[in-house]
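user: can you give me the structure for this one chain? tokens are fine.
assistant: on it. calling the predictor now.
[tool input]
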Amino acid sequence: MNFDLTGKRVLISAGGSGIGRAIVEGFVAQGANVVTCDINPDFVNDLKTALPNVMAQVVDVGDEPTVQGFCAAAIDHLGGLDCLVNNAGIAGPTARIEDLDLADIERCLAVCLTSQFITIGRAVPHLRQGRAPAIVNISSLAGRLGFKLRSPYAAAKWGVIGLTKSMAAELGPDGIRVNAVLPGIVAGARQRRVLEARAQAQGRSFEEIEAQAFSYTAIKDYVTPQQIADQVAFLASPRSATMTGQAISVCGDTAMLG
């Protein structure tokens, strides 16, 4: 489907693999001009080889000065900004609340939530001058349902929804739309690591944990990164011109995360 994104100037965080890579590829295929980053140098190098027209840098979004510098360079490279996609996130620790380490909690919040405050703050002055400007924040179904043994991640993703709703109200008068996408159980290496960590924490097999996860879904299958990318492209496009402040789940109707 053509989402009318030709010439759109887009900044996407964590675009080197998984959902982020699918989002980058989707925007490029639609004719957008894209800048992205990733913490993994191998992912960045591979992206540069596969998509030489995409500016990509190695960035730790949990480090404020680095993020500030990257945003400035990205917007300068693009000559302005029409769309910001906050995709960066980490799984965070898997443990009971009494066993959590403060450093792990703070790192999870910094990457999954604080980084979005920083990028939005840098982007908004330029988005105000953009064409049909939009912000899309990647949250998680954990940001709606909660997730036992992964409270730092769930708290951060709940925060993303609160940030999204607040920014939609604050930036609406400027014509900037702000929405969030909440992926469910997404196919890929990261999801497998999450389920493996959960299996280890509970002393169960990966197969048991996977089966339990799908027992709570209406559609017994993984969400694909491409499905998330398509939703993001729609929310960035003129086709969603009156949509803002929404937290949209792409999850196969998941009732809980257990």
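assistant: here you go. The CA atoms of residues 84 and 216 lie 32 Å apart. The chain has two domains: 9-184+224-240, 186-222.
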